[in-house]
Amino acid sequence: MAKPIMVVGTMTNTGKSWIVTGLCRIFHQDGKSAAPFKAQNTASSSFITDAGEEISRAQAVQAEAADIEPTSLMNPVLLKPAGEANVQVIVQGHPVGSMTMDKFQIYHDKKLGAVLRESYEALAAAYDIVILEGAGNPSEVDSSEDDLANMGMANVAQAPGILVADMDRGGVFATLFGTIMLMRPEERAMIKGIIINKFSGEPDSLTSGLRMIEEKTGIPVLGVVPMAPIDIEEEDNLSASIKSDDVEKIITIDVIALPHISNFTDFNAFERIPGVALRYIHKESELTDPDMIIIPGTLNTIGDLKWMRQNGIEEAILTKAREGVVVFGVCGGYQMMGEKLADPYHVEEGGVLKGMGLLKTVTMFSDRKRTFRVEGFFGNVRGIFRQLKGKSFYGYEIHSGITDFPTENCLTHMRPTYEPGEIVPEGSQYVDDVMNVYGTFIHGIFDCEGVASTMARALFAKKGRKPADMQSVNYRSYKQEQYDKLADCLRRHIDMDKIYKIVEEGL
């Protein structure tokens, strides 16, 4: 059975996931088999496992850092905001329905306790170390005694805890002291160390504060981690990404920042290409001079299409397309670009909605969600991206319903990896003398070696420009380098001997 350790935070966005990711990498480097575990996560971005199960992207990133395959055991409950104050509830990788948070709490209390315990025990049986991650603040005064998102789960696992605080937002010692003092005495005793994250400045300036917090709480400070230019994917933070460099930006790719945008990390590969500017567009006036427009995935396709229609973004995109600007849709964005969207089963808002008319597709939503990993190759790609023809790719699909399209317009050919079989057409394109319009359901397709860089080269060529130095982007290798950089950073600034001692001694 694995030895557990739990990482909790004084508030949301203290960097718990970042610390867990780094610890996963360190344990892997040190020859330990380690796995992440977050009992309940709320996120718009998700990932599909080899078994076709949907989990939070954060736990998939942590598993990748640990060099293991992600499974639904690592994130047994995922909540995805779905609009109208509802969340879509994913349990052990499969959707069980949409509900309000009040109804979810009732559902949680009745059915999910056993699921969380069983998932943790199955995971712990397979690894040397399990790193649990909390959610929000573990000492909220209205939380129940068996809060399985935080210390309740630590109690189940008998996991010693590390409390992470965010220096960047100020008041770090007050939030540390307040969080610890508001904990129940038995929970407070489980906290074995403190990490201060996101520090910038001279370390000596913290000496008196560190001494004070240790004296007042009786809990040692294990380290102070500085702000560092390390590029680890964030689940739901559009502003968190590291920009590629200071090279002149020759081409601009605009991503529409839909209200219910999901899996925005799909486009990170473009930011690694010198000369490419990636912007997130919130209103029509910002859509000025793009070389390509991307309509991303969304948790509410119909609602977000109406939003674009109401604030003028749809018309601006149509105008740009007629002027020759490339438009590329992914998942829900791809569905929007068709001729019609029908929702007879009220999966989203119900009814029938006219699409943008950029592609000759018709989408029928159904209550069956399609979630699987895929592999394949680009087919007879026409227009500006014709150099993609024949390139292989991998990725995953997450969507509801079926989209029909003329097969002669297909963009790619693919098959699910969990059930290899016949290669089938996927995606769609519309190319004429002016317009270059493409769409696909496949998340992660731009991460594949040579895809984003081939597209960027085509956009540079269209503009009559040539980048100074652009190699084929292998985003997978890039991420591995970032995990190693994160592990190096934590080793320098955290006392890993004490971390290992906490893991070995337990509670």
UniProtKB/TrEMBL annotation:
Belongs to the CobB/CobQ family. CobQ subfamily. The keyword Transmembrane helix does not apply. Residues 252-447 form the CobB/CobQ-like glutamine amidotransferase domain. This is Cobyric acid synthase. GO terms for biological process: cobalamin biosynthetic process. Keywords: Cobalamin biosynthesis, Glutamine amidotransferase. InterPro entries: Class_I_gatase-like, CobQ/CobB/MinD/ParA_Nub-bd_dom, CobQ_GATase1, CobQ_synth, GATase_3, P-loop_NTPase. Residues 5-229 form the CobQ/CobB/MinD/ParA nucleotide binding domain. One of its GO terms (molecular function) is ABC-type vitamin B12 transporter activity. The lineage of its organism: Bacteria, Bacillati, Bacillota, Negativicutes, Veillonellales. Catalyzes amidations at positions B, D, E, and G on adenosylcobyrinic A,C-diamide. NH(2) groups are provided by glutamine, and one molecule of ATP is hydrogenolyzed for each amidation. Pathway: Cofactor biosynthesis; adenosylcobalamin biosynthesis. The active site is at C331, H443.
